[in-house]
Amino acid sequence: MRKPLLLLLLLLPLGLWAQRPAEIPDHRVVLTDFGGVPDGVTLNTEAFRKAISALSKRGGGQLVVPEGLWLTGPIVLKDAIDLHLEKSAVIVFTPDKSAYVEEGSGRPCISASKRHDVRISGEGIIDGNGEWWRPVKRSKNSDEEWKQYLRKGGSVTQDGSLWYPFNLKHFPNVTAGEKSEEKLRAHMIRLTDCERVTVTGVTIQNAPRFHLVPTRCRDVIIEGVTVRCPWNAQNGDGIDIMSCRHVRISGCTVDVGDDGICLKAGAGQRGVEAGPCQDILIENNTVFHAHGGFVIGSEFSGGMEDITVRHNVFSGTDTGLRFKSAPERGGVCRNIRISDIVMTDIKNEAVVFQTTYADRPAGYEDNQAARTERFLPDFTDIVMERIVCRGAATAIRSQGPLSQIHGIVLRDATFFYNETEQAIDDPLSIQMENVRFLTF
Predict the structure, then answer these.
(1) Model confidence over 33-54: pLDDT tens digits?
(2) Same domain, 160 and 305
């Protein structure tokens, strides 16, 4: 009995699910040793910088953030550093935007670039103070919530549909206009070109933009993390994996204002140069509100391959399994295996493929005319099985030509839909086996 199993293991790709965790030296310092004050008023940017610098000189180690409210500006991690938040420790980032502007660009709250062995751990909370950054749509807020934004000052568009955190009462502008300031809105935790990244246990909330964004990293482990922000937070993605290899996301809880767990691989030629998302395992996660529970796209010109998504729950998301792209943003998406997915109360589609996706940032109109027929999306070799959904407006939607959506298999699934069973442009795009569609 052992020989066939051994042969199967030998035939598996060498990198499959073999993520290497960050390795941190056995050195430990506490933020208070470097002048940190947890009173929620004192700015601790310099204390974080000094502590990380001291650990870096010793070859790395653990920076302990004790119980308390730690106000700070941007934190830059170095090689072999573990930013460890003890229980009841809260890092909150200053709403003073001038702290994040560098050479005309906005800096992430926490960042690391071209580093190895980066870890963020513990039981504490990292809060991005995103409400001071994000534009707000009037249609997504109650009267009382809208009044709360107006009390901060800010600017409202002429038609009253959008509020910008520009001309605020208590903080200066950092650009000449609301849209130029909007472009400075950075991701909360962005780790770029890093080797061995581990994020465990912490709660990450209220980001200015996306919450956790590993980009062109290798060996990424995200485990037992909670990601949360208001349901109507503009561009409030939860976990976005961009052009990374050897990634595991497990045991996480996501409740956000945009896509929940999302894979991207760049748009156009830049995406090709960044490379694919490859060798990804996403399992045992729960996504509450999000535009999509598990999402690929909209940009993945670098490609998607060797991805397994299993044993996840999506409860109250706008869509469940969401595959979206468009010309100039697409690439080849293949060898995707999705299984054992449970969905409840899905607002729109349980499963949706879309190759005509239009990206419309708040305050801007999408320019469809500018698109060409380059970098077309190619969704293929995708198998979805053992899926149960109770409550979705539409069970399955597929928008796009057969040349861009093909080789899709859906089997052993049950969908209880509220309005529409199927909305599929080409019936040949999705092969169904033992799929039940039920309604009232």
Answers:
(1) 999 999 999 999 999 999 999 9
(2) no
